[in-house]
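Recall the central idea of this unit: under ordinary conditions, the amino acid sequence of a chain determines the structure it adopts. In this exercise we apply that idea directly, starting from the sequence alone.
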Amino acid sequence: MKKTLFLIAFLILVSCNKNADKKECTSDQKSAKEFEMYQMSEMAALMESMYIQNEKLKERIKKGDTIGQFPGHFRNIHKAVMTDESDNDQFFKEQATLFIKSQEMIYKDPKNAKQHFNEGINACVSCHQVKCGGPIPKIKKLYIK
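Accordingly, the structure predicted from this sequence is:
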């Protein structure tokens, strides 16, 4: 009888340990999923880069400094991989073209840099109003008043 009770207690203990291991494993798997690093798409990274460069350009225009040269990598807007490829439609392509033309005009016609700069920002805002509204308040801060 003692042996039977001992055996039952042993089986219960082993069974609980196996269940505890399963629970730990499951919670470890959940934790790993919760802490996955966000990977920016090529387009998101490009737009972040364009934003930073336009912040600097804005200050140069406001101060009347030399503008420099058009950042050629901005043209990657036409081929950068998006988070959602269905967003790369005709509307986006038109807005991207307007943005690039406005940006190029800043460097070709520096006397009207402020106007061209703000036209480029208008293209960004117009596109984001349709595609992804989140960054609009940040983008609007780029306008030169």
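The two ends are 91 Å apart (CA to CA).
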